[in-house]
Amino acid sequence: MTPQSILKTQFGYDTFRTGQQEVIDAVLDHQPTLAIMPTGGGKSLCYQIPALIVPGVTLVVSPLISLMKDQVDALNENGIPATFINSSLSYQEINERFDQAATQQVKLLYVSPERLDSGYFARLAELPIDLVAIDEAHCISQWGHDFRPSYLNLATTIQQLPSNPTIIALTATATPRVAADIMQRLGIDKKVETGFSRPNLAFKVVKDQDEDRFLIDYLQANPDQSGIVYASTRKEVERLTKLLERKKVAVTMYHGGLDKAERRQNQEDFLYDRTPVMVATNAFGMGIDKSNVRFVIHAQVPGSLEAYYQEAGRAGRDGLPSEAILLFKLADVQIQHFLIEQSERDEASKQQEYEKLQAMSQYANTQECLQRYILAYFGEEGEDCGQCSNCLDDRESQDITIETQKVLSCVKRMDERFGKGFVAQVLAGSHNQRVKQFHFDTLSTFGLMKGRAQKSITELIDFLTASGYLAADGGQYPILKITALGVKVLTGKEQVFRKVAVKASKALPQNDELFEALRALRREFAEKQGVPPFVIFSDKTLRDMCVVMPKTLNDMLDVKGIGQSKLERYGEAFLAVLQENAKQAE
């Protein structure tokens, strides 16, 4: 068997995506490898295909139970023997699955990092493990946005395996610093990075609007689309869920305060397309391999761009057009400040989190291409995407050079020792005690923007920081400093332009009748077999059926995502729907 033949016969694809072939070749050549690919970029195939070629077992370290189950279900649907071991199983079931791996009745064995630290290591050491795949590898780095202590011991544990397996680490979100940390900890010297761009994902920032009204209008305009709405707190999740229920939106919710049975039921309702919209905290999502999520809306600001990009990336995993929308308001930034301050992190870690939050706030205030801004954050150059809210904002820019000079001059006269809130107070002409204490009421810049709301001035400062005229230096209480670009503005060598608030998003395209008929058939199979619909076929595969319009079972193999196993299981039923549609069109 070759990687190319497995790609076609088992997974139903003719060509590899960018980077997949390189990673697979490196793994088969026993090179420890780090693969950094965007969500939906096909990371799983980078170890699933080698798993079918190497003689022994592939051990997959995965962080969440739900992710294991979904991936194992998908592999089994493709005729690939796989199983998992986690806390949901009885002692007898665990032993039975170890026995299956020992006799190579399964080729892939999924475990959590905690299982490697437990008494299971002795059983693992008995297995013929040739390859270890570490999913969500950013969890191993203290600089990552989702650091997990249980990942720290992975390198030591793997080194103790007598079979001396090859390591492949995979992640969608790793800054250069995080990538270097992963490689150092795991002893990896090869990195394959395919880029962070998601061409099918339209990023949008919505500001200065009634967020509840926007959310209601958007969901009512997209009643049949599956999506996730993220909020920062359990209280806000419950409030939004009740609000949407009153507006007759089919919605469910997920947060850590719900009991285990309710969380599982709500998650399954979402996965099985019984309830299209999930309102959740960030406790939901890392383990959700649902390919047909058409939108992700952040109703509150997340704590970092890494977290935002990973959560937003859960939209459009199948490659079809999708949206990632951030509803931004300054009050949400304060919520994140509170969450950082109340955390049990040490002071150095807190300072790091504050810096990440600053970058998140700057993303919401930049007027450059949003996708290009994200790429730059991850150390990658990119071109304007042409579809984000900033790229599509065709209104004329306003010359705000004089306003900018007022702000920069005030920062300068305050000796670049204070934050944006205090600068805004001075510019607004506030007579509070602190302003008087520092005698800033005597500055020539005091009250230069009198009559303008402090919130408006603060937003202007955020824009100037995001645009590179100011720099925020520090952690919880960052101080403003003028950059080299800002100096050019102060000296009259550079002009500054700004557009007004961006437009609200339009609804996603509606589905056609044939696609809906295929979805209905997919749902029937999914319910009979007790698996999520996307495990049967992704939305992208159903869309491709509508384009290819196969006339025979053999033609069905030309549809992306249909391999021999799925053709045998579902080919005739889906072909019948396609043929009926063709007759009606004649």
From TrEMBL:
Q: Which family does it belong to?
A: Belongs to the helicase family. RecQ subfamily.
**For this protein, what is the EC number?**
5.6.2.4
Q: Name one GO cellular component term.
A: bacterial nucleoid
Q: Which cofactor does it need?
A: Zn(2+); Mg(2+)
Sorted alphabetically, the keyword list is:
ATP-binding, DNA damage, DNA recombination, DNA repair, DNA-binding, Helicase, Hydrolase, Isomerase, Metal-binding, Nucleotide-binding, Zinc
Task: Note the PROSITE patterns from the entry.
Answer: HELICASE_ATP_BIND_1, HELICASE_CTER, HRDC
Keyword Acetylation found = no
| Record GO biological process | DNA recombination; DNA repair; DNA replication; SOS response
- Record-annotated HRDC domain positions: 508-586
- Which stretches make up the Helicase C-terminal domain? 210-358
* Catalysis: reaction(s): Couples ATP hydrolysis with the unwinding of duplex DNA by translocating in the 3'-5' direction
> Does this UniProt record's set of keywords contain Metal-binding?
yes
Q: What class of enzyme is it?
A: isomerase
Q: Which residues form the Helicase ATP-binding domain?
A: 24-192
Origin: domain of life? Bacteria
Any Pfam family hit: RQC
Q: Name one GO molecular function term.
A: metal ion binding
Query: What's the protein called, per UniProt?
Result: DNA helicase RecQ
